[in-house]
Design goal:
CATH class: Mainly Beta
Radius of gyration: 21 Å
Strand content: 35-45%
Order of helices and strands: EEEHHEEEH
Distance between the termini: 53 Å
Strand order of the largest sheet: 3-2-5-6
Shape: elongated
CATH topology: Ganglioside M2 Activator Protein, Chain: A
Oligomer: single chain
CATH architecture: Distorted Sandwich
Length: 140
């Protein structure tokens, strides 16, 4: 994600939600709003989830201090399962981010990410593939 901010934003807030798929996407555990600028300047305490998001984003983005201005990017974002394993199990998820800027808070944009978590895939062993090959050749 890359954007050019035409005017300086002194106050940026985010509304973050997680949804889990149970025949449809339903709210799941997290529904928080926070001021990004207050957290980046350490003026407000934040939760585990917010600290994790800020720590991940700071490695891949230049949006690490306020006011936000000029060219802002988040590149090659890589989310490790270890950050979320405490509360996310196998399934399909939707992450909603809605950004607000300045006062009064005007919507500045929305980002929706979809994620699927599943058990680690392991390749069949050679022994299994050899047995499968012999079964298939005997059927022919």
């Amino acid at each position: 994600m890359e954007m050019d901010v035409k005017k300086s934003f002194k106050n940026v807030s985010v509304h973050f939600q997680i949804f889990k798929f149970y025949n449809q996407f339903r709210p799941f555990l997290v529904d928080v709003s926070f001021s990004v600028c207050d957290i980046l300047s350490k003026k407000s305490a934040s939760s585990y989830y917010i600290n994790t998001m800020i720590r991940v984003l700071s490695k891949f983005s230049n949006a690490v201090k306020c006011p936000l201005k000029g060219h802002v990017y988040a590149r090659n974002l890589e989310i490790k399962y270890d950050f979320f394993k405490m509360f996310i199990d196998e399934g399909r998820y939707r992450f909603n981010f809605e950004f607000f800027a300045d006062y009064p808070l005007d919507s500045a944009g929305k980002v929706t990410m979809y994620l699927e978590v599943f058990n680690k895939y392991t390749k069949p062993t050679k022994r299994l593939s050899n047995n499968l090959t012999s079964i298939l050749t005997s059927l022919m």
